[in-house]
Amino acid sequence: MYAVIKTGGKQYRVQPGDLLVVEKLDGEAGAEVRFDSVLMMGDDKGSTVGAPTVDGAVVSGVLVETRKGEKVKIFKKIRRQGYRRTRGHRQPESVVRVTALEGLGKSAKWDGQVDLTTKAELDARARGLAPRVEAAPAKGAKAPKAEAAPAAEAAPAKKAPAKKAAAPKAEAKTETKKAAPKKAAAKKADEA
Fold first, then answer.
1. Where is this region: Disordered (predicted)?
2. What is the mean pLDDT of each run of 10 residues along the chain (192 residues)?
């Protein structure tokens, strides 16, 4: 089952479980969001178009986060006048997880659990910049012991070989400088 909703002056085709990025909505993370402006509903058997909306149809969701969108650069230039201006803008947007569709005597719900982890935190985890949060064990259950520590102690650390190639080159240069004055002194002695 799917629906076409209107919010923020734009239209979105949604299904239960979809993650939407829409214009900024009021509310905190985890708040329930309802979209009453449902323009169309449909499923495998057919679709119903509203005039202008489908009566009694509602799309429910959970507000995951409110954030700033991608940066848009505004660059102005007048040629041959030395006029250049650069500005930037980040539009505020909200991320919504669609949980249920209701209307026309039918309903569809999403069985998953809504995760309120922000996109910025997921990106930081992917780059290895944020600590990963491990799931806490259930009450009464023992946590598994980590056996990585004995394996690390058993493996000796490898040392990098020292570089000794730079020293002979420096000695070769000093020998050539010393040899040059001797030849010049020998030539002067022959001429005299």
1. 133-192
2. 94 94 94 94 90 92 94 97 97 95 91 86 84 61 52 52 54 53 62 61
